[in-house]
């Protein structure tokens, strides 16, 4: 369960949390931390030459990691089979371009192999609670000299909202399987909560990370330091975000993405939309437009128009229709399409222009979207060292 928050023109209320309430798996939310002002009040630290850092996502990958859902408690009401079909479709599509390893519980590995096909490697030795590999998997880092390591973000079930005994161990177990050194970050978070440009700049929402359910009592400056240490960065661009409306508390990667140093995109709502997420998207665009990178470069911010929720296929009030939640793999951009034909085509065209030389694979992932997630949410890249 990763980034369920770039929606516009949608009824207020919880997204993936709605699934968890039905399953009886949520816990009472802890007190939310208060926003503490823009990052950048202190001088940005200088990057260390040769140090490990998380690269921008368009670098070449060794493989993609995914996770196979099998819990009828989490995916209740008969939704599990459809979500599994969407996960298998995503895995098969990515496997046309690069290797995919699917982590699965041993009891469901055979079903995963049957649905994913022979092009996907299913690994029954890394058990999982759910499918959100972006949040549970390790964040891989490179040093520019052939080195690779991994960082775990201390996954705690999005602030204790879902059972996560297995998922809390996924990052370390994947790193061990990949044979790379593993360390734990100095903060609690999820991969979908942080975007990096690979050149020293991060972006994130306060609502997700500066939050008592992840990092109680942590001040923004301390969180800046911990995030920069983990990602090999020197500056964080903060957005306010949206507290308590979905299980992720507004992950940034459903709304805003880095393309390169000084280049970003924001999925924008319709002009007529004025719900919390529409306001959030506009605020993210304003902040990014006024920001500079860690090296002082002004941000060039592209707009990616979101769909009209009255024209998409799904009528689920918690549906996530995020084009911005796409995944880059070797030679392809894998993104969602939601049934608003004009918006789907326009988004495909924009992504093709922004990522020249890559095939745009647009997939119907409506069952996953009804769970409040997207393609970036369920994938984690392992870059080539």
UniProtKB/TrEMBL annotation:
Domain of life: Bacteria
PROSITE patterns the record matches: TAT
Pfam families attached to this UniProt entry: PAD_porph
Name of the featured protein: Agmatine/peptidylarginine deiminase
Transmembrane segments: none
Species name: Streptomyces sanglieri
Gene3D superfamilies for this protein: L-arginine/glycine Amidinotransferase, Chain A
Matching InterPro entries: Peptidyl-Arg-deiminase_porph, TAT_signal
Key word RNA-binding present: no
């Amino acid at each position: 369960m990763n980034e369920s928050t770039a929606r516009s023109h949608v009824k207020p209320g919880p997204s993936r949390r709605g699934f968890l309430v039905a399953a009886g798996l949520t816990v009472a939310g802890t007190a939310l931390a208060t926003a503490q002002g823009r990052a950048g009040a202190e001088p940005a630290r200088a990057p260390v030459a040769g140090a490990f850092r998380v690269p921008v996502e368009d670098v070449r990958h060794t493989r993609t990691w995914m996770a196979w859902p099998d819990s009828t408690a989490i995916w209740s009401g008969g939704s599990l089979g459809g979500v599994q079909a969407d996960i298998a479709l995503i895995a098969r599509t990515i496997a046309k371009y690069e290797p995919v390893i699917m982590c699965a519980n041993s009891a469901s590995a055979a079903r995963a192999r049957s649905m994913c096909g022979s092009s996907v490697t299913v690994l029954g030795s890394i058990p999982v609670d759910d499918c959100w590999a972006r949040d549970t998997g390790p964040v891989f880092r490179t040093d520019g000299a052939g080195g690779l390591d991994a960082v775990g973000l201390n996954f705690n079930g999005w602030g204790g909202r879902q059972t996560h005994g297995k998922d809390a161990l996924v990052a370390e177990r994947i790193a061990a399987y990949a044979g790379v050194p593993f360390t734990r970050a100095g903060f609690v978070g999820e991969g979908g909560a942080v975007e990096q440009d690979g050149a020293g700049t991060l972006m994130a929402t306060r609502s997700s990370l500066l939050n008592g359910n992840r990092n109680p009592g942590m001040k923004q400056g301390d969180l800046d330091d911990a995030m920069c240490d983990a990602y090999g960065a020197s500056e964080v661009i903060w957005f306010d975000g949206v507290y308590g409306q979905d299980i992720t508390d507004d992950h940034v990667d459903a709304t805003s993405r880095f393309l390169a140093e000084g280049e970003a995109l924001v999925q924008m709502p319709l002009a007529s939309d004025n719900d919390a997420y529409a306001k959030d998207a506009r605020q993210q665009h304003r902040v990014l437009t006024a920001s500079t990178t860690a090296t002082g470069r002004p941000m060039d911010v592209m707009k990616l128009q979101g769909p009209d929720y009255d024209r998409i296929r799904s009528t689920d009030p918690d549906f996530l229709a995020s084009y911005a939640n796409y995944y880059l793999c070797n030679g392809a951009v894998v993104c969602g399409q939601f049934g608003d034909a004009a918006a789907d085509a326009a988004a495909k065209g924009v992504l093709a222009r922004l990522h020249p030389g890559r095939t745009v694979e647009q997939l119907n992932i409506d069952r996953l979207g009804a769970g409040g997630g997207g393609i970036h949410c369920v994938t984690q890249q392992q870059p080539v060292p």
